[in-house]
Specification:
The protein has 685 residues and is of the alpha+beta class. Helices cover 26% and strands 33% of the residues.
């Protein structure tokens, strides 16, 4: 067995690998970029080596630097996690050349399965069912157009080296093909260094079912059953579950047997995932094989009780699989929700900034699902702590919340409840949106397809559904939060050290004036008129037409964030706990299991330029301009594409917010811009 391994990754997966390795008595080496100097994986591993600048190409993707770090620290093996170098055949070869064990499959398997076209050619002789498509080497526009006509529309363009939802475009007709090809090839070249694409017939609204396989160096291959990953947006998984809902035992066996066939066809070793599409008739088709550990591996751990990272390490060390197919069983049901720093109200654009408060009550970190540890049924795999920053350089996922219970309904309820208790303040995030997805009737019923989230978006996304907090309670709590913020500001400025509840005490008047505050809830304006009276731990909030009584628990001290918690004793939410947390002018409100956020329109922060006549388009996040679709003097219509911005490994097209005439384009293709930088300016006329 190895005595020291290097973890060639960052974030929650680096922490996850470290937890198992140290439990096995193995020393660990972290690598990091300068942007991750304070990251938790750096603190928790036994040693750490800085690879260089924040850009992944200069640090986490630099093969020479990673190998040098392993040699310098005496690491006998390297675990690549997922993403970065995990499916890079050149990296696996570099490890072999350096006589360092690669905790993953062999070089040839990575090469074959790393190309979606080669993978299909490899498994086709074994009788594995394939989607009709074109996987050839001729990438000329004429050939691709001819093949598209043969396959028929709608179809999908896929980067052969793709993954993570990148390098995929849907084409509905022949006219869309050239532009979609150019965009897909550009994104593939930037993300994977390979612009080669393939074409596939689009299966309308299928289910996405994948099977976890493991193989050792002794010829043994097993599967650990399937996961349903159909809850997707932009081809990226959002919530995964295991086992898949509604499969018959015959279907489950067919999936497992076919996945094992695929692994044997490529002489696979280690952990792999075979991905399929399941259509409405019950027929399934091979899509691809991911030659690494998956983001969603925890749901398999929770239903089988096995530590998959431990399996990976043992197999790389030459040990046989620790279980046979006959001894692997499904126990209960598990869900995983991916927690992202992103803004659901703005098309899920990635968000950056400092997470001022990160709190996950009752969650067990990185518990791999042994029977003794599944009692709580809530696991958190995360890279986050209060005070850490979300960087613009990497994927915006900050963690994964996993739940387990004996039944699907109970596991889903646990997930919804755990999301309601999770606190992430300081950056926009998808936590409330994920909870709304959990409660959606079609999702809760099970058996949903990959079109679910798109249908929800067309109807009314969970993110734009009105909050479940009663409007009168919402305005009263907003007023209470403003009084608390005001009094905490006074306490801080005088540095009294007084108990904040005592500072708030004693606001009485025979005819109290109502304080007016203006707010934004998403794009809707709101006004609160309130007066707060405090006596001990009892609060009375008097509003224009109603009042609210509550029992206060605590006001945060020594003020890491202005925060007020308590119990509502009157009104529609009587008996519910509330949690009011400030971050700048933004207020996060949690009432029972409901949550929302408000922006206080602070009169002191109104910008001087808000009233100017001109309009423009600003960068919603840091990124690089990769395309400009208009020129100075062009007349544009609302919704017309203007600028292409590459950020957090994805391409984003910024559309015109109005009709207008382009007056200036300050930043050409290739410019790196910060959040808020004006990219297009319209004339005032």
């Amino acid at each position: 067995m190895f005595t020291k391994i290097l973890i060639a990754n960052r974030g929650e997966i680096a922490r996850r690998i470290n937890r198992t390795a140290q439990a096995m008595g193995i020393q660990t080496v972290a690598v990091y970029s300068t942007a991750d100097a304070q990251a938790l994986h750096v603190q928790e591993c036994n040693e750490a080596v800085c690879l260089g600048e924040p850009e992944a190409a200069l640090s986490y993707l630099n093969i020479e630097k990673v190998i040098a770090a392993a040699r310098r620290t005496g690491a006998q093996a390297i675990h690549p996690g997922y993403g970065f170098l995990s499916e890079n055949a050149a990296f696996a070869q570099a490890c072999a050349d350096a006589h360092i064990a690669f905790i993953g499959p062999g070089v040839q398997a990575i090469r074959t399965m790393g190309s979606k076209s080669e993978a299909k050619a490899c498994v086709q002789p074994a009788g594995v069912p394939l989607i009709p498509g074109y996987f050839g080497a001729d990438q000329s526009l004429a050939t691709l157009q001819a093949e598209a006509q043969r396959i028929g529309f709608p179809l999908m363009i896929k980067a052969v080296a793709g993954g993570g939802g990148k390098g995929i475009r849907i084409v509905n007709n022949e006219g869309e093909l050239p532009a979609a090809l150019e965009s897909c090839q550009r994104e593939a070249r930037n993300a994977f260094g390979d612009a080669t694409v393939m074409l596939e017939k689009q299966i309308i609204n299928p289910r996405h079912v994948e099977v976890q396989v493991f193989a050792d160096t002794h010829g043994n291959v097993v599967h650990l059953f399937e996961r349903d990953c159909s809850a997707q947006r932009r081809h990226q998984k959002v919530i995964e579950e295991a086992p898949a809902f509604g499969l018959t035992e015959a279907q489950r066996k067919a999936f497992g047997d076919t996945a094992v066939q695929v692994a044997r066809a490529v002489n696979y070793v280690g952990a792999g995932t075979v991905e399929f599409l399941l259509d409405a008739r019950g027929e399934f088709y091979f899509m691809e094989m991911n030659t690494r550990l998956q983001v969603e591996h925890p749901v398999t751990e929770m239903i089988t009780g096995f530590d998959l990272v431990q399996w990976q390490i043992e197999i790389a060390a030459g040990l046989p699989l620790p279980a046979t197919q006959e001894t692997i069983h499904i126990d209960g049901h598990a869900f995983e929700a991916r927690l992202y720093a992103e803004n659901p109200d703005q098309g899920f654009l990635p968000a950056i900034g400092t997470v001022e408060l990160w709190e996950a009550p009752e969650a067990i970190e990185f518990h791999t699902g042994t029977h003794a540890g599944r009692t709580a049924g809530v696991r958190l795999d995360s890279s986050m702590r209060s005070g850490l920053a979300v960087s613009p350089y990497y994927d915006p996922m900050v963690g994964k919340l996993i739940t387990w219970a004996p039944t699907r309904a109970a596991a889903l309820q646990k997930l919804a409840d755990a999301l309601a208790r999770l606190r992430c303040v300081g950056v926009k995030n998808n936590i409330a949106w994920l909870r709304s997805l959990c409660l959606h009737p079609e999702f809760a019923a099970g058996g949903y397809d990959t079109g679910l989230i798109d249908r929800m978006t067309l109807a009314a996304t969970p993110a734009t559904t009105p909050t479940g907090i009663d409007p009168q309670t919402l305005t009263a709590l907003a007023g209470l939060a403003r009084w608390a913020l005001h009094q905490q500001t006074i306490a801080r400025s005088h540095k009294t050290g007084t108990d904040p509840l005592a500072v708030l005490d004693g606001f009485y008047s025979s005819a109290p004036p109502l304080r007016e505050d203006r707010w934004l809830q998403r794009d809707q304006s709101m006004v609160s008129h309130s007066h707060v009276s405090i006596q001990g731990q009892q609060a009375l909030v008097q509003c224009s037409e109603h009042s609210l009584n509550c029992q206060l628990t605590v006001v945060s001290q020594p003020y890491p964030l202005p925060r007020l918690t308590g119990l509502l004793t009157t009104g529609p939410h009587a008996g519910d706990c509330f949690d009011l947390i400030w971050h700048g002018d933004n207020l996060s409100l949690h009432v029972g299991t409901e949550q929302t956020s408000l922006q206080w329109l602070n009169p002191a922060h109104i910008r001087a330029d808000q009233g100017h006549d001109g309009q423009g388009v600003a960068a919603p996040m840091p990124g690089k301009v990769f395309a400009v679709f208009v020129k100075v003097g062009d007349t544009v219509k609302k919704g017309q594409p203007l600028i292409g911005l590459e950020a957090m490994k994805m391409e984003h097209t910024l559309n015109s917010p109005c009709d207008g005439v382009v007056e200036s384009i300050p930043h050409p293709v290739g410019d790196q811009v910060t959040e808020g930088t004006e990219l297009i300016h319209f004339s005032k006329d």
